Amino acid sequence: MKSFISYILLLCIKYCSKLFYRFEVNWPPKDQIRWNDIRLVIFLNHTSLFEFLYAAILPNHFLRKLSKRMVAPAADKTLERPFVGTFFKLFSPGMISITRKRDYSWANFMDSIYADSIIVIAPEGRMMRRNGLDLQGRKMTVKSGVIDILEGLQHENGQIAFAYSGGLHHIQIPGEGAPKIFKTLKLNLEAQNIQDYLKKFSEPVGSEEWKKMVLNDLQTRLETKVPK
Length: 228
Prior knowledge:
Layout: H1 2-20, E1 22-26, E2 38-44, H2 60-69, E3 70-75, H3 76-79, H4 82-91, E4 95-98, H5 104-111, E5 118-121, H6 145-152, E6 159-165, E7 184-193, H7 194-199, H8 208-224
Parallel strand pairs: 1-7, 2-5, 2-6, 3-4, 3-5
Antiparallel strand pairs: 6-7
Helix pairs in contact: 1-2
């Protein structure tokens, strides 16, 4: 029942988004994305809680799979908000509350990932503010949690989808008013086989050097592949 409610809400989000916003999507070459094979979505350039609007570009059959199988970490302070937290939990029953520390909450998230899960993560771990930095005034960087996920997928088949957001500050800046409508959202998409991605790095999966290489690769993607 929860997954059905989630699916209906995702469909409502999709078609309301298509009604009130325009989307410019740089799609990868034909057939590069195999929606039935997506195991991990890495969303880069996290700027707003309204990024669920990008559901407008997803095929309905993938939304149905997300409603059943999505697992995503979310900041505990977000999920504890009376309205926002309830909304996120409704459209994604697989939203797992985590703290800012690598503590029991992160271990709980990792334990919630199953063989058929579709994992969605914004690996910066916090949102960009108006000045281009995070709430604490630090540069936006990729955090190491995504490394744990990739390491856990080292024996799995399927695809990674890289979603590069053009940013949503023109729609809503965190903590600053209601969202604006009739704007354009930009997104660049890539997809790569999990094994192909992991094998592009010369060091053994799980080694300290491998972890540094992956973080550097994702940081470079964050800085160079988002729409302008």
